[in-house]
Design brief:
By secondary structure, this protein is an alpha/beta fold. It has 13 helices and twelve strands. The protein has three domains: 50 residues, lambda repressor-like DNA-binding domains (434 Repressor (Amino-terminal Domain)), CATH 1.10.260.40; 135 residues, Response regulator (Rossmann fold), CATH 3.40.50; 131 residues, Rossmann fold, CATH 3.40.50. 45% of the residues lie in helices and 15% in strands. α5 packs parallel to α13 and α8 runs parallel beside α9.
Length: 339
């Protein structure tokens, strides 16, 4: 059996450093930690059984870490997701431990405290990113986790997830505008580092290609998922391309910002400029005009993620661990025929 002293002999680090690195403590340099983890995998190291038993004692707590500097996490989308997680956790007899940290070192230190410190039985990861360091860490630690969202189309989603089919949803929204006679259609996307951004871009491109319409890079902009971003990008688009008659937005908040920008210019949304969103957050239905959007069952996703994770923690086989839910177009007043 490989022991800590064997890892020490191979790596040149002390037994104490190795123990703290494998335990997820934040006082160990990340490069050092990775060298030790790689050596442990190479030698086939397994933790001492009493330590394993102690680590496997249940806390009845699920962890969720959100970006501290991402205002979009304070919006209705995240509120719905969190409500779904919280309600399901109560039914399962679990608490939810939430922390907020900026992406980067602070965030990863928090993951190490949660996971390496034995504070939680499992983690829910919200909003996957390109080459997501959080997922790599959780896999290395062999810690139970589930994800709200898949990896990007160019990466393998080799983990439990629940996602909405946003590629089809954006395609449906774009096809809806094309059917109304629109040909000059712009797209407001999420930041490029988010994993789902490419799915939504592809949905827009698919609809244009099917209709024989050109894909114009200048019509496709990346925003911040906030009203302010949608407002600013819509102004920029209309300044440069006054012939635009429609805008597809990758979330409702940017669509509401786009609506405000159009109205400030004296345009009638749904007549002079058609706008679609994505998510179907509660304000979408009561906006003026009511927002045409793509509905995804955010509350249900939160609930099902929690139930899936509890089954994984209990080492039970979940009925499904990779679920792609349909996204449904809701037509309201913010879209109309091209004039």
């Amino acid at each position: 059996m490989v022991k800590l002293k064997d890892l020490a002999a191979k790596t040149g680090y002390s037994v104490t450093t190795i123990s703290r690195a494998l335990g997820g403590y934040s006082d160990v340099n990340e490069q050092t930690r990775q060298q030790i983890i790689d050596a442990a995998h190479e030698l086939g190291y397994e933790p001492h059984e009493p330590a394993r038993q102690l680590r496997n004692q249940r806390t009845q707590t699920i962890g969720l870490i959100i970006p501290a500097n991402d205002q979009s996490f304070s919006n209705d989308f995240f509120n719905l997701l969190l409500r779904g997680i919280g309600d399901a956790a109560a039914l399962e007899g679990y608490d939810v431990l939430i922390s907020a940290h900026a992406p980067g070192k602070s965030e990863m230190d928090a993951y190490r405290r949660f996971v390496g410190g034995g504070r939680v039985d499992g983690m829910i990861v919200a909003r996957t990113r390109q080459s997501d360091e959080r997922l790599r860490y959780l896999k290395r630690m062999q810690h139970p986790f589930v994800v709200s969202g898949r990896s990007s189309p160019t990466e393998e989603s080799d983990f439990g997830y629940i996602d909405a089919d946003s590629q089809t949803g954006i395609r449906d929204a774009t096809e809806h505008l094309i059917a109304l006679g629109h040909r000059e259609i712009a797209l407001l996307l999420p930041p490029p580092d988010l994993a789902y951004t490419e799915y939504r871009r592809r949905g827009y491109a698919d609809a244009l290609a099917a209709a024989g319409l050109p894909y114009r890079e200048a019509y496709v902009l990346h925003g911040d998922l906030l009203r302010e971003g949608g407002f600013a990008l819509t102004n920029a688009l209309l300044n440069q391309f006054p012939a635009l008659t429609a805008i597809v937005c990758a979330n409702d908040l940017m669509a509401l910002g786009a609506t405000a920008a159009a109205q400030k210019r004296g345009l009638v949304v749904g007549r002079d400029l058609s706008i679609t969103g994505f998510d179907d957050i509660p304000p979408a239905e009561y906006a003026h005009p009511a927002l045409t959007t793509v509905h995804q069952p955010v509350y249900e996703i939160g609930q099902r993620l929690l139930h899936m994770l509890v089954q994984i923690i209990a080492r039970k086989t979940a009925p499904e661990t990779q679920i792609l839910l349909p996204a449904r177009l809701i037509v309201r007043d913010s879209t109309g025929e091209r004039r």
